[in-house]
Amino acid sequence: MVFHLSEAVNMAKSMVIRAGGLLKHAASREIACNYKNHDHRDLLTEFDERVQSLVIAELKKNYPDHKFISEEKHNNGDLTGYVWILDPIDGTTNFVCFKKNFSISLALYKDGKPVFGIVYDAVNDDLYQGISGEGAYLNNKRINNLTRIPLKNCIINISLNSIEELYNKYRIKIFNLAKDVRGHRYFGAASLELCKIATGELNIYISTNLKSWDFAAAGIILNEVGGYYGGIDHMKLDLTGKPTALVACSSKELYHVVLEKVFQQPSLYKGTRE
Predict the structure, then answer these.
(1) What would the mean pLDDT of 203-207 be, rounded to a whole number?
(2) What is the mean pLDDT of the chain?
(3) Cα distances (Å, whole numbers) of residue 74 to 37, 78, 122, 240, 274
(4) According to the model, what pLDDT value does residue 260 have?
(5) Is 136 buried (19+), middle (13-18) or exposed (0-12) by CB count in 10 A?
(6) Which of 153, 160, 174, 267 has its CA at 20 to 30 Å from residue 40's CA atom?
(7) Is the pLDDT at 101 greater than 90, yes or no?
(8) In what order do the strands lie in the sheet with 126-131?
(9) DSSP labels for 120-180?
(10) Which of 142, 174, 193 is the last residue of a domain?
């Protein structure tokens, strides 16, 4: 099948909305779950696998030569050609416990470079979309470019697990940042948290243990409105599913301020400072 971007975007949107309906219906009742690798913090439900199967089966039907990287499957790490990166439920704990603040995240990359990304908040029926070089949208309304904001006015988003790992593993006292920012919030779904930076609701997101399906789609959306994300050491983020540490900010300038102030990383940025 010949690839047409507009057709692929429309197909992806239709699929995630359809799968989101399944999740929204499931969230209206009690949801049974299992633990991955006997870790009580890492939940798995039947709906993670059902959404994954639904989306991948439909994509394979239309694009049999495309590859797939997804949370609930074995991934071989091959990024050549067209590769779909899927998180069937980002925020499974939220899905099970709170029945909100979870999403379906789907992105398409070609040879490791972004093509487009979609993040669907099924409960609120909010669909975020970013097409590389063509802007970002929320429910088909263009998201305005972000304005620069100083660190003191920022809302930072980071989990207790990441705070603990930064201190115990690296002796980085991320909690000292509390005095330099306006406040701290945590929602528990990386894709939605990056989208909230894109819409101006948050300003900084830090995680020590993300995988590509957590940020592949939302990262495109964020970049399209002037936001920026990357590793804590300026290294390229892994897209194959290996754990990675990520910092996302509402501007490239702010990203480098955070790296310098929190991680003591020398800045590679030559622009105007925050």
Answers:
(1) 96
(2) 89
(3) 15, 12, 26, 10, 42
(4) 87
(5) buried
(6) 174
(7) yes
(8) 67-70, 82-90, 103-110, 113-121, 126-131, 135-138, 141-142
(9) EETTTTEEEEEETTTEEEETTEEPPPPPP--GGG-EEEE-HHHHHHHHHHH---GGGGGGT
(10) 142
The one-letter amino acid at 68: F
Do residues 45 and 131 share a domain? Answer: yes
Q: Distance from first CA to last CA of the chain, Å, rounded?
A: 47
Q: Tokens for 180?
A: 């330099």
**pLDDT tens digits, one per residue of 56-67:** 999 999 999 999
Q: How many CA atoms lie within 13 A of 62 on its CB side?
A: 17
Looking at residue 274, its pLDDT comes to 44
Look at residue 86 and give its three-state secondary structure.
strand
Look at residues 217, 185, 261 and name the one whose alpha carbon lies nearest to residue 88: 217
Structure tokens at 117: 């990304």
Structurally, the chain folds into a number of domains equal to 2
Structure tokens at 101: 């603040």
165: which strand partners?
A: none
Check if the beta carbon of residue 178 is closer than 8 Å to that of residue 203: no
Q: Is the pLDDT score of 39 beyond 80?
A: no
Is the pLDDT at 156 greater than 80? The verdict is yes
265 versus 95: which is more confidently predicted?
95
Q: Say if residue 132 is in the same domain as residue 164.
A: no
| pLDDT over threshold 50, residue 270 | no
Whole-model pTM: value is 0.91
- Pair 63, 102 in one domain: yes
Does residue 67 sit in helix, strand or coil? strand
- Residue 270 maps to a domain: no
For residue 157, what are its two tokens? 């988003």
